[in-house]
Amino acid sequence: MVTVGQVGGAYGVQGWVRIVSFTDPPSNLLDYQPWHLRLKGAGRGEPRWQPCPAEAIRSHGDGFVARFREVADRDAALRLSGAEIAIPEASLPAPEAGEFYWRDLVGLQVVDQNGVELGVVRRLMPTGVHDVMVTEGGEEGGDEVLIPFVNAHVGSVRIPDGVIEVQWEAPQ
Length: 172
Fold this sequence. Notes:
Blueprint: E1 2-11, E2 16-21, E3 36-38, E4 50-51, E5 54-60, E6 63-68, H1 74-79, E7 84-87, H2 102-105, E8 109-112, E9 117-126, E10 131-137, E11 145-148, E12 154-158, E13 163-166
Parallel strand pairs: 8-13
Antiparallel strand pairs: 1-2, 1-7, 2-6, 3-4, 3-7, 5-6, 8-9, 9-10, 10-11, 12-13
């Protein structure tokens, strides 16, 4: 399962809930159905995702509101607050050539043009201008290295090999 959003608080008294999209653009969330929910605090171990298709969804402010078939009032909607929204991984479209899902980059080894290990991708972050890889644990120690994820710096991404080659100078 791939988490694509989260249920916010209740909206109104008829069982509607606010929806926060984690997709880019946020409206892509609407293309992924049926949704599966995992309630906050559902316990440790294997996540228990429950199919929960939205009966109705509409735009509201900078997000969305939705109503689920089994949720008839505000009290039931409040119980969904904080639930994760996910879809089966197979529901995602294959990325175009040269595009990647962030989740596929996390954990890959980053090496510079000289083969020096700069670390492992821990996360990516948007900056408004471009995305940035945050790496940790290279040959020089455990310092974080921030590398813009742009063509000028990213030479190749070999997901099957677990490697991203970059044009970047290792920190001194």
